[in-house]
Amino acid sequence: MKTAVITGAGSGVGRAIALKLAPQGWRVAILGRRAEALDETVRLAAPNAPAIKPYVCDVSDASAVARIANQIHMEFGEIEVLVNAAGTNVPRRSLEQLSAADYRAMMDTNLNGAYYCAQAFLPRMRARGSGTIINIVSDAGKLASPKAGPAYVMSKFGLAGLNQSINAEERTHGIRACAIFPGDIDTALLEQRPNPPDEQARARMMRPEDVADCAVFCLNMPAHVIVEEMLVRPR
């Protein structure tokens, strides 16, 4: 049976990917900081997806990630797919306003969390000789903009570098990584903007399900194919 671990699965793109995979026969371990949000993802997946299980975990905590990864391996066995979808931003995000605490929080969640998760699941993928890692980045990881803010941009450029590094080092072990760079998506993260967009602006954006379809496309490619990067934006 196919197995996947998805971070940030209590909302947004992470939840959308879980809801795409679970009805297709995947066993899915979903990670997030809020138990009630994860439980809602499970509820939305039911009753056609009994093999979806929530794990409360703050991916910015390396020891928590290692502990949960061990638990998932014991309960699920081998993990074929890791999706790093956890991400955050803050309203006061410009260089002039950004606090040291907010800077560290964004780097810890957006970049370090993905690194901790990759390091937690790579060893057994490596030993098995197969595995796919999907990193949900952002088009802010391609080009900086005031809309995103410097800490978010830096974390996403770093995540793109992590994706490249996985492919550079691990492809000989049968492991592949895909970085998806979405443009504007209508998710709860928009509420963290200094001036959240109105309903008309949101209507022109992509939906989390659109990005989830991109992730599913990448992981369903034949094992000898790596979609290293995918840039996707609203029309």
Structure in words:
- The structure is a single chain.
- This protein is an alpha/beta fold and 235 residues long.
- It has a single domain (3-232), classed as NAD(P)-binding Rossmann-like Domain (Rossmann fold), CATH 3.40.50.
- Helix content is 44%, strand content 16%.
- A 7-stranded parallel sheet has the order 3-2-1-4-5-6-7, sandwiched between helices.
- Strand 5 (131-136), helix 5 and strand 6 form a beta-alpha-beta unit.
- The longest helix is centred in the middle third of the chain and has 29 residues, at 100-128.
- The protein is globular.
Second-tier CATH architecture: 3-Layer(aba) Sandwich
Annotation field: number of helices = 7
Classify the secondary structure makeup into a structural class: alpha/beta
Q: Quick check: average pLDDT?
A: 96
Q: Measured on Cα atoms, how large is the radius of gyration?
A: 17 Å
Query: Quick one: biggest sheet?
Result: 7 strands, parallel
CATH top level label = Alpha Beta
Give the low-pLDDT segments.
none
Strand content range: 15-25%
| Secondary structure: number of strands | 7
What do we call the CATH topology?
Rossmann fold
Number of domains in the coordinates?
A: 1
Quick one: CATH superfamily?
NAD(P)-binding Rossmann-like Domain
Sequence of secondary-structure elements: EHEHEHEHEHEHHE
What's the SSE blueprint?
Elements: E1 3-6, H1 12-21, E2 27-32, H2 35-45, E3 52-56, H3 62-76, E4 81-84, H4 100-128, E5 131-136, H5 150-170, E6 175-182, H6 199-203, H7 208-220, E7 229-232
Parallel strand pairs: 1-2, 1-4, 2-3, 4-5, 5-6, 6-7
